[in-house]
Specification:
Length: 225
């Protein structure tokens, strides 16, 4: 089971990496745009050095045809390292490129997945992750947990090397439902992740314990005893 950060913001990533058990970072063109007119490769190199070599970095291509997608994947990997995960939308042209790239050993994350059939086609084409767009699916009245469940079951049955990477979250319930439905990984924006620890009941319980302790030990901590 894996947790990734869905962000291209260096400050947010740095803060979140200190707190959460993170195994990778996913980025998309919208997040890159949110950073302003940055040096694209320079910025991604900074993300790589921040997360270290052991975490996965997922970078999305923009090409609309097989040749451009393949060219972009090659360029990204030549600059950011062979192990970089290339996120490719599951369209007809995307699938053509995915099949070529996986046969040549590229790590591919199939992205913009809204349906089970997209996931099946990506899985059969040898991708490492199938990025299912949970909240965007709900917005279109698509049963996201069902799609995750179906794909996860197929992956088990086929002992495939592919994992469902649930993405596009707006709240904590969507994350926990994804894992419970069989997602092997979730990628989450830092601000959505922090909602999980932000509820007042947690802080109240911590404060109550501290008050009980202070009544007896009057401000001393365990270190002072
Ligand atoms: C991650 O790979 C996706 O691009 C991302 O989760 C999409 O999230 P959004 O629907 O919040 O833009």
């Amino acid at each position: 089971m894996r947790l990734m950060l869905d962000s291209a913001n260096l400050k947010d990533l740095e803060r979140a990496l200190e707190i959460y058990p993170i195994s990778g970072v996913t980025t998309n063109p919208q997040q890159i745009q949110g950073e302003g007119c940055i040096d694209f490769f320079g910025h991604l190199k900074s993300i790589r050095s921040l997360i270290g070599d052991d975490r996965s970095l997922h970078v999305q291509v923009l090409g609309r045809d097989k040749r451009t997608i393949i060219g972009e994947a090659e360029k990204i990997c030549s600059i950011l390292g062979e192990g970089t995960y290339i996120s490719v939308p599951v369209t007809e042209e995307g699938l053509k490129a995915i099949r070529d790239l996986t046969q040549r050993g590229f790590n591919i994350t199939a992205t913009t997945v809204f349906s089970t059939i997209q996931g099946i086609l990506a899985m059969l084409s040898g991708v490492k992750y199938v990025a299912v767009f949970y909240n965007r699916m709900l917005n279109n009245d698509i049963d996201a947990p069902r799609v995750i469940r179906e794909l996860a079951n197929m992956l088990w049955t086929n002992t495939s090397n592919t994992q469902v990477l649930a993405a596009s979250f707006k709240n904590v319930t969507e994350i926990t439902t994804s894992y419970a439905s069989g997602a092997g990984a979730c990628t989450v924006r830092p601000e959505v992740l922090s909602m999980g620890l932000g509820m007042p009941s947690i802080q109240k319980a911590v404060s109550d314990f501290r008050r009980d302790w202070d009544e007896v030990y009057q401000g001393k901590t365990i270190l002072d005893l």
